[in-house]
Recover the amino acids of this structure.
């Protein structure tokens, strides 16, 4: 969540300062759509994490919900960082700061359980069996 929120914050600040076609990047409809989508996905990921944490705090089974939260949040972070790079243009790709967030987010989809393994865990909880 932190990687996505940090990258998102940089994109919002950058879009408010950067001018393109004699207007602020933040005034372009495509930018506003990206910002809305990123913010919505970040909120959804945060809520899934909060829900899994709440189940754990209550002493209930939370394995599937924790896997879902990690799956959604890590893939969301990679998408958000990809959109941030897109908003920054060439600078986003060459800047160590902005591009580093994408690399870090991408690693999260691999480490501590790949997205594919997490999907297998969730499906196994729902469908039973060892597959």
């Amino acid at each position: 969540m932190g990687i996505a929120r940090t990258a998102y914050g940089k994109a919002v600040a950058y879009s408010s300062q950067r001018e393109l076609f004699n207007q602020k990047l933040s005034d372009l409809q495509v930018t506003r759509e990206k910002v809305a989508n990123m913010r919505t996905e970040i909120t959804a990921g945060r809520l899934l994490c909060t829900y899994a944490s709440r189940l754990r705090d209550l002493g209930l089974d939370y394995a599937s919900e924790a896997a879902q939260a990690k799956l959604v949040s890590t893939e969301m972070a990679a998408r958000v960082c990809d959109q941030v790079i897109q908003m920054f243009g060439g600078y986003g790709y060459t800047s160590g700061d902005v591009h580093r967030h994408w690399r870090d987010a991408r690693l999260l989809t691999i480490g501590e359980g790949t997205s594919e393994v997490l999907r297998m865990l969730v499906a196994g909880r729902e469908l039973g069996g060892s597959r």
